[in-house]
Every structure is written in C-alpha cells, then in structure tokens.
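ok here's the first one, seq then struct tokens
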Amino acid sequence: MSKDILDIYVKCYGLSNKINVIISPEPSPIAAMFKYVDEKLNDVNIIFGVSKKAGDEKRFKSAMKYYADNEHINLLDPLTTAVDPYLDEKGNPVSATDARNSLDDPEKLKTFLPKKLTKDDI
C-alpha cells in the first residue's frame, strides 16, 4: 500500500519519468538506503533525501566518511543538501508520527497530504 501511495505522489507531481518507487527488503530505511547505494550504484553523485528538521542532516554526516574512499560514489554533503521541512498550516514541521497518529481522523490526515492531490487521488 505504501508504494501505491508514493506512486500517486510521483504521478501527481509529474515525476514518473524521473522516480521509480521500489519496495525495500530492509526493515530500516537508512540501512536500505546504504545497501542500495553500495550494491546498485556506480559512478554517480548521491544526494540523500534529508531534512533540516531537528538536525536530521547531522545523522548523515558519518556517511561522508563512509564514502570518502569510494571512487565510484560521490556523496554530496548532507549538511549542504538538506532541505527545509514541509510545514503544516500552523507553520510546524510535519512529522510522520503525527501523520500515523491521524489515520483515524480523515480530515486531520488530509493536512499531511501534498496539496497537488485531487479528490480522486485521495
């Protein structure tokens, strides 16, 4: 189901020709990310999808050391590529935990969804 939702987001933003959503066999998204880079990528620049929310980008600082000696992977510094977090209507950073806690309240859950979604998408 998560893949189906992400596929809708990708389509709604017109990114189907640039993004391919896959299901990870790893239980940890961080472990999955490193494993994918290590096993599937070669001679590329990498930008990890990192937010500036609560210093999240600092968790990836060690990745720079991990890939420093890898001549086939150029990891762009997460401290410089991190993006500002998505904010709710009150200006607070959106949290996945808050979204999960809203699953029983469809109206509240809608506040976490991308604005470009149509009623059919939802």
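and now the second one, same deal
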Amino acid sequence: MQKPLKGIYAVCPETKNFIDLKKKITQCIDAGIKLFQIRIKSIDILLENELVIKDIISSVHVSDGLILINDFFHLVDRFNFDGVHIGQSDGDISLIRMIIKNKLIGLSCYNSHMLTKNAINADYVSVGAFNASVTKKNISLIPKNFYKELINIQKPLCLIGGINDSNFSKANSLNFDMIAISNGIFGSQNINKVTKFFVKKFQEVN
C-alpha cells in the first residue's frame, strides 16, 4: 500500500556536498518529516554521488518515508527513488508513467491550463508560488481564483514557494495535503528546531 502523501515535503536545494545533505536530511527525519525531494539539475553530479545518494534514500526508507527525484525519471529505478517530480515542460507524463510504472509522479502546476491538461495523470499536484522564493526566480504568485479551481482536483495537493517559519501559519491555514519547503529548512541555522516547528504546526491543523 502506498504511503500517504501528507505532511511537510522537504525539497533539497542544489548541492554538490551530499555528505552535508545527508546530515541535514537526518535531522529532518528525526523531526518527523517523511517526504523528500532531491532537486539536482546536473545528471553528472547525481551519478558522481550515486553511492551517498543511495545511502540517503535508504535512510528515508528506513524511517518509512518517501523520496523523489526532480526531472530525471529514467534514474528512478536505478537509484530506488519512490518516484519523480516534473515541471510543466519536463516531458510527456503518460510516457513517464509507462517508464516508471507504479511509482509516484508529482506535477508542478502554475496555471489552469496545465492543471486541467495533465493533473489527471499525476499522483499529486504541486501548486505555487505561494510566496517569493530564493530558489526560483521570476515566477508569479498564485492568483486567488486559482485556489478555487483546486477544489475540483481529486488529487493530493502540495503548496510550494517561499514558505518559511514567518509565513508558515498562513500557508498552513489553506489546508493543503502537503507543504513543500526548501530554503526555509535547508537554509536555516537550526534545522532541528525549525523542522520540529513545521511538523508540529502542520499536525495541529491536519
């Protein structure tokens, strides 16, 4: 049975230091986070660090969590990821489904057209941006009417974009199934403290 797609979704930032990333992910796991995404744009970096990434994946699985890779769906089985997260122009979702079969596919949606076109084939839909973000530049914030359209999507929904400890309560009040956080976790000086804060606050509402 597939684990539930619910909770804080820790999206790892671009890095070349996977030993340090493993330490940070361990702190997230200790705080109770169960959902992770490895976000690396260079396939060379991924392959050069294959052993430590597989070790990270194993640690997440031991904690009964899920970990996805961004974009590189053809590496899902090789690394033993639980699935892939793709953007609006990262490939044909039906073709990706044929390749990774019953593993998870997450889809980023930033407008109504994308939502209605491809959401039906995804396992969850990530919607943003909630707020300005240091990890993604030149993106638009979610228009208020877009939130209303999400009611008709019978998929787990994830809110993403510039979420941190200062605006988390507002994001959490929107009652998304998942809240994706990147710099708000991995850019923190005290990951243990901030992740426990996010997990506790999410559980209070959900």
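notes on #2: The CA atoms of residues 119 and 125 lie 7 Å apart. The radius of gyration is 16 Å.
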